[in-house]
Amino acid sequence: MTGSLLKNTILPLALFAALALVPAYADVFDDRFVLLFFTRILVFAIVAISLDFILGLGAMVSFGHAAYIGFGAYAVAILSEHDIWEAWISFPLAVAAGGLFALITGAISLKTRGVYFIMITLAFGQMAYFTATSLSAYGGDDGLTMWGRSELFGTGLFTGDASFYYLVFGVLAAAYLLLRTFAASRFGRVLKGAKQSEPRLEAMGIDPYRYRLAAYVIAGMIASVAGALMANQSEFVSPAYMSWHRSGELIVMVILGGLGSLHGAILGTIAYMVLEEVLSGYSEHWRLVFGPLLILVVLYGRGGLMGLIPGQIGRQSRGEADQ
Question: Where are the membrane-spanning stretches (predicted)?
Answer without folding.
Answer: 36-55, 85-108, 115-138, 158-179, 213-231, 251-275, 287-309
